[in-house]
Design brief:
The complex is a heterodimer.
Chain A (H helix, E strand, L loop, with lengths): L1 E5 L9 E7 L6 E2 L4 E6 L4 E5 L4 E6 L6 E3 L3 E7 L7 E3 L8 H17 L15 H9 L18 H10 L5 E2 L6 H7 L3 H5 L6 E2 L29 H16 L2 E9 L1 H18 L6 H14 L5 E4 L2 E4 L5 E3 L1 E2 L4 E2 L2 E2 L7 H17 L4 H4 L4 E4 L19 E5 L3 E7 L2 E15 L5 H21 L5
Parallel strand pairs in A: 1-9, 15-19, 19-20
Antiparallel strand pairs in A: 1-8, 2-4, 2-7, 3-6, 4-5, 6-8, 10-11, 12-22, 13-14, 15-18, 16-17, 20-22, 21-22
Helix pairs in contact in A: 2-3, 7-11, 8-9, 8-11
Chain B lengths: L1 E4 H15 L3 E5 L15 H5 L4 E3 L4 H13 L3 E5 L10 H8 L2 H4 L9 E6 L14 H4 L6 E3 L4 H13 L4 E6 L2 H4 L1 E4 L12 E4 L4 E5 L2 H14 L5 E5 L2 E3 L3 H11 L2 E8 L4 H12 L9 E5 L9 H7 L3 H13 L1
Parallel strand pairs in B: 2-3, 2-4, 4-5, 5-7, 6-7, 10-11, 10-13, 13-14
Antiparallel strand pairs in B: 1-8, 6-12, 9-11
Classes of the chains: A alpha+beta, B alpha/beta.
């Protein structure tokens, strides 16, 4: 009879996966543990192994479809005869009835022997001191070990033999798995947003079933378009939610009179373009002002780390670069060691790399403070979300000509708003206010003094 | 090398020490003409005479008290308490005098005495002939306690006890007297007090025990080996001082520790050993420390089925090891 193959739990906290490609078609024969299809989740891309040897007789879930963990994806006709349809998960999730029965069978005995094991179902995620110590000392990911102890507890011996022999684990190499797909759809996105993505080993193992939020009651009307949320989008969503939830945001806005800077830039931009072969924008001036401000108020260049605040020595400026469908935040490393020209050059290179999808992991690492040039969208006011765990983010809005009071007269000046969000756990309004005032002052002075850009 | 019984090793050690050092003498109830109720002093009266093998009145306080006095002036008495159950009338002499004299006299006086006491049950001895008394005395600094499990260890440890310059309570399990035979060298050797010994190497579960239970654990391990469970057995040999280092090492060996003793569970040595492990080797533990010990009842039952029910045996130990192995 046919064996049902269900969507496996690929890593903890994963509740669903997208079947990107079927490696076996209806009629193909498979061996036990042979990959059936490729599945993409927001964490990894992995292969689903066959749970039995036999022939694929029905594919239930088409390529490109996202299904919840535990849902039927295909049927395999087993070799030889089996009396009735058996339902097997490639990994047994804890809440299947079968498992509970098994557990309760042993439960009485277990309880008698070990009062510590009363909650049998949880014993496989409770580790003994020895197991934890050995795992830490040897950098072993315990989720990859199948326990052989009571209630599938991972024993000290399991860890030791894992270290010694290395159990068979399903190796998932993102760069290899479903390579084509990734290339076609979102070039380099995995590199860009998932910094720890490199290659991961994922053992399909029982893990807690984290309930995802269900949005059941959404009405889809005629003409509505459904956009599948890709993994880049998902990561953006996750990070934004995390930052918003964790860091108490506070906002400050100042306006700066950059008339002199506008004049100064206009004066030199054509020469610059000729000489350097790229445009000189206002952003490098602004970043320069921010960097100098950070030097003056180093606390702003810091990171919240629960029990302490980490004042970063290096000043690495993350800059937000938007593409049509995503947002990347590459980093200008050691921005405090660069001239305005140097910053301009770095921005140009990073922007180009982003557009071409060539950002590397080093381009995305170690940012300490974020500058966002929201002015390019025409915005005049924004409340940016912190780039966690950084303590601050500042935006430069559109430069607009407005009538303002200037030297006790009404004058038309080029004005710009600078908006800052701060992590109120790290910074208070006072220091942030001083910092943003300092940035404003420096920005205004740059034009007046016609600072050298080299 | 002769294969002799546990009790013969006791006699051999005393005889050799009495020959070696004429300050060594034996005193106790029926130790002389009778040769001891268990025959531990057989032949000593004939060999060394009534001055060195002294029959005493039925008064344990006197046996120990006289021994303390003799020891303080340089003799090396071996006082026999006929059954450990009867040691309590001498508790004052042991706890408040023998164990404290070196401390009390600022090191001017000491008590180089051995108190031999046959202890333990499983011999149809009922209330007054079955007790384990080690826990009562293990809370007494200044007193050493030894409880060997093999004839070889008996000889080496008894000789070490006789030569020790402080009081040693030498516990001989009655059941072992004729149960266990082993090779014992004729010549002179001692075993350091305070040193435990691994009696069996294993990988799955560590058993820490002493006395008769070592033999039972060895039998259990033999049986379990056929089931694929490998047992590591540490024989403490000395209960005071405990060999902490050996306890920790044995814990490290498997991460799963079963402590076995015939003495009552509550307040027994198992608690102390558990505490040592918890304090010093928490991160070696792969399972809760387990104790298999005598029930907390007032006494060993007299009724044979009840005594059998009460006593630990290789099967009970095997079950406990199996449970831990499965954990």
């Amino acid at each position: 009879m046919a064996t049902k193959v269900l969507m496996p739990q690929l890593g903890e906290s994963v509740t669903e996966g997208t079947i990107t490609r079927w490696l076996k078609q209806v009629g193909d024969s498979v061996n036990k543990y042979e990959p059936l299809c490729e599945v993409e989740t927001d964490k990894v891309t992995a292969e689903v192994p066959a749970t039995v040897s036999g022939t694929v007789i029905e594919i239930v879930v088409e390529e490109g479809t996202t299904v919840e963990v535990g849902k039927l994806i295909c049927h395999i006709q087993e070799q030889g005869s089996v009396e009735e349809t058996t339902e097997t998960l490639p990994i047994e999730t804890k809440d299947t009835e079968k498992e509970q029965e098994k557990v309760s069978e042993n439960a009485q005995q277990d309880k008698k022997l070990n009062p510590h094991l009363n909650r049998d179902e949880q014993s496989n995620v409770r580790y003994s001191p020895a197991v934890l110590r050995i795992a830490q000392e040897n950098n072993v990911d315990l989720t990859q070990i199948q326990g052989t102890g009571l209630g599938r507890r991972i024993t000290r011996k399991d860890v030791l033999s894992y270290i010694e022999n290395g159990l068979p684990v399903l190796k998932v190499d993102q760069t290899l798995a479903s390579k084509d797909q990734m290339k076609k759809q979102q070039p380099e996105t995995k590199k860009v947003l998932n910094q720890e993505s490199e290659s991961k080993e994922v053992k399909i193992s029982p893990a807690e079933n984290e309930a995802g939020i269900k949005i059941d009651n959404l009405k889809v009307e005629a003409g509505d378009q459904e956009i599948v949320v890709n993994n880049v989008r998902k990561t953006i969503a996750k990070r934004m939610v995390q930052s918003k939830n964790e860091a108490p945001h506070a906002w400050l806005t100042v306006e700066a009179d950059v008339s002199d800077l506008v004049l100064y830039r206009n004066k030199i931009k054509n020469d610059f373009k000729k000489k350097e072969n790229f445009n000189l924008t206002y952003l490098p001036f602004f970043i320069k002002a921010v960097v100098e401000g950070l030097k003056e108020y180093p606390i702003v260049n810091s990171v919240w780390a629960e029990d302490r605040i980490l004042l970063k020595k290096r000043i690495n400026i993350s800059i937000a670069v938007a593409t049509e469908d995503a947002l990347f935040v590459p980093v200008i490393q050691d921005a405090d060691q660069k001239s305005i020209y140097g910053i301009a050059k770095a921005i140009d290179e990073l922007a180009q790399k982003t557009r071409e999808g060539k950002l590397t992991i080093t381009d995305l690492q170690d940012g300490t403070f974020t500058v966002n040039n929201t002015g390019t969208f025409g915005s005049i006011l924004s409340a940016p979300i912190l780039n966690s765990p950084q303590a601050g983010i500042i935006t430069m809005e559109s430069i607009v000509k407005r009538p303002v009071v200037y030297q006790d007269m009404i004058a038309v000046r080029s004005m710009v708003n600078l908006c800052m969000s701060l992590d109120h756990r790290v910074l208070d309004g006072l220091v942030a206010g001083r910092f943003i005032q300092s940035v404003k002052q420096k920005l205004e002075d740059m034009g007046k003094k016609e600072v050298s850009i080299y | 090398m002769a294969v002799i019984s546990y009790i013969e090793a006791v006699t051999m050690a005393m005889r050799e020490e009495m020959k070696r050092d004429n300050q060594v003498f034996v005193l106790g109830e029926d130790v002389g003409v009778r040769g001891g109720v268990f025959r531990a002093t057989t032949g000593l009266y004939e060999e060394f005479g009534e001055d060195r093998v002294i029959d005493t009145p039925l008064a344990e306080s006197a046996i120990v008290g006289v021994g303390i006095g003799a020891a303080m002036v340089g003799m090396r008495p071996i006082a026999e308490i006929q059954f450990a159950d009867f040691i309590l009338p001498a508790a004052n002499q042991i706890i408040s005098e023998a164990a404290k004299i070196r401390y009390r006299s600022n090191n001017d006086w000491n008590v180089p005495m051995v108190i031999r006491a046959p202890y333990g049950g499983g011999v149809h001895g009922a209330l007054y002939h079955s007790q384990s008394i080690e826990a009562i005395f293990s809370n007494v600094p200044g007193l050493k306690i030894v409880a060997p499990s093999t004839p070889y260890d008996v000889k080496g440890l008894l000789k070490a006890a006789i030569r020790d310059n402080d009081p040693v309570l030498f516990l001989e399990h009655k059941r072992l007297y004729r149960l266990v035979k082993g090779e014992v060298p004729e010549g002179d050797y001692t075993i350091a007090i305070g040193k435990a010994e691994v009696k069996r190497e294993g990988e799955d579960v560590t058993v820490i025990t002493y006395g008769l239970m070592v033999q039972f654990a060895l039998q259990a391990a033999e049986k379990l080996e056929k089931e694929g469970i490998s047992t590591h057995i540490l024989d403490l040999r000395s209960l005071q001082p405990l060999d902490k280092e050996a306890i920790i090492q044995a814990t490290k060996k498997t991460g799963k520790v079963l402590i076995v003793h015939e003495d009552n569970k509550t307040g027994g040595l198992g608690g102390e050993i558990s505490a040592i492990i918890a304090e010093e080797a928490l991160f070696e533990l792969d399972a809760p420390i387990k104790r298999l010990a005598g029930y907390d009842t007032p006494a060993m039952p007299y009724s044979p089925p009840m005594e059998k029910f009460y006593m630990l045996n290789p099967e009970k130990i095997a079950n406990a090891i199996r449970d831990l192995a499965q954990f």
